[in-house]
Amino acid sequence: MHRYTKLVAVYGCLLASASRSSAQQGPGSIPLSLSLQEVWQKSDVHSKVIQMQRLQVQRSKEAIRDAVTERLPELSVGGNFEQASNIPVYEHGLFNKPTQHEVIHTLYKIGADGYLNIYNGSKTNLKIAEEKVRDKIAIEQQNLTISDIRYRAASRYLELQRSLIFKQLMIKDIADQEKQLEEIRHFLKNGVVLKSDVLRVELKLSRQKLSLVTIENDISLSNQKLNILIGEPDEQVVIPTDPTNAETTHPETYEAYLAEAVSHSFQYHMSEQETELKKIELKTVKANVSLKIGLYGDFYYANPQIFLYPYNPHLYSLGIAGVRASFPISAIYLNRHKEKIAELELKKQEIEHADTEDQVRKQVKEAYLRYKEALIGVDVAKVNVEQAKENHRIVNNTYFNQTSLVTDLLDASVQLLQTHFDLATAEMAASLQYYQLQNVIGNL
């Protein structure tokens, strides 16, 4: 008896310690009630992965603007200042004293020149189109990242919600067990039950209290994981406000979900844009063998005038404008293998896109079936709860009528609690499978 009493006392101390640590959480001890939508809003703002992806989208926007600016003319200004020496003229040979020919010693020039591309095989347009496709890929990647983070947030949210339900069930079960223990002790005084019955119930109660400590720790860990995603302090207490069966609705048909995936799946559209990018890259390589035409101009001031004879030491200006055309003949044979490589890359990407389509169909089918399976699990769990309640009621009456053993009573209590746990787990699993399905089809 002393041994069991001591064991109960130890478990009581553990439970009291856990309760004190939960109560002393500092600033985060003020509960923060959040719905899943509010959690998603916070994760969209505070997730570092999403922040990095937003920067990538901004970069792609700037890359488009940079490609567009290549249509503008290239302009430059420059100048030079020079000091020249006389020109020695060796009239009588290199080893005799030369005659010094006087020149204009100070020379300077300042001017501007420009070039405007008119046609270069549409490389500029292809570059702009390429950057626009890369921007679409970055946007789809950002949407995929947001969807994945939301799914993770939903998982943490449901995990926390399940642990809180477990805590409520365990507290209620402990209260019921303590009340039942008092009744059994009363029967023991009257000599109706054995001392071993009391000890077994006390041992079960102590184990339940230890399980409550474990659940409290699970809540704390789930809370921290969720807080990291939504940008709250680690010790902030979050209280989920959504109902436990919010997403256990009747599913649509597989074909409807598959059609949505084709329209909205981020992975599918990213693969589609990657294929378009390879097509543009092939066109760019082919453009290496093309005529290049452009306008150019040059205007400058210079001194002295040595452009035309006779020269003179006076400032002059000159402007030149024209059309420049060229064709890279060597590109005809140098570009052949580059073009073949680009064609092979395009074929490879087309196969990858087809494979991505297959993977999306597979993911939709799996998520769809798992969701239906989870809904069936919820229905089964509800039936099990009702059966366990009835079984517990019958065994409880027969025990106190001395027609069943204490082990039957304890088993019935454990089964009842376990069925409640199973129902909470099934509802959370069904909700999580729903969000997984929405994540796959691109609606999260």
For this entry, give a set of tags.
alpha+beta, signal, Outer membrane efflux proteins (OEP), 66% helix, 444 residues, single chain, two-stranded parallel sheet, elongated, disordered N terminus, 10 helices
Q: Specify the number of helices.
A: 10
Distance between the termini: 57 Å
| Helical residue percent band | 55-70%
CATH architecture: Up-down Bundle
Q: What strand order characterises the main sheet?
A: 2-5-7-8
Strand runs, count: 8
CATH topology: Outer membrane efflux proteins (OEP)
Number of domains as seen in the coordinates: 1
CATH superfamily: Outer membrane efflux proteins (OEP)
Strand content: 5-15%
Which helices and strands, and how do they pair?
Blueprint lengths: L1 H22 L8 E3 L1 H11 L1 H22 L4 E10 L3 E3 L9 E3 L4 E14 L3 H67 L5 H36 L7 E3 L13 H11 L1 H21 L5 E12 L12 E11 L4 H4 L1 H65 L5 H36 L3
Parallel strand pairs: 1-6
Antiparallel strand pairs: 2-5, 3-4, 5-7, 7-8
Characterize the structure shown.
Residues 1-23 form the signal peptide. Keywords: Cell outer membrane, Coiled coil, Membrane, Signal, Transmembrane, Transmembrane beta strand. This is TolC family protein. It is a single chain. This protein is α+β, with helices and mostly antiparallel strands. It has a single domain (2-72, 120-291, 327-441), classed as Up-down Bundle (Outer membrane efflux proteins (OEP)). Helix content is 66%, strand content 13%. It has 10 helices and 8 strands. Strands 2-5-7-8 form a 4-stranded antiparallel β-sheet, with no helix packed on it. A two-stranded parallel ribbon has the order 1-6. Helix 4 (123-189) packs antiparallel against helix 7 (266-286). The chain is elongated and about 145 Å long. Mean pLDDT is 85; it is low at 1-28.
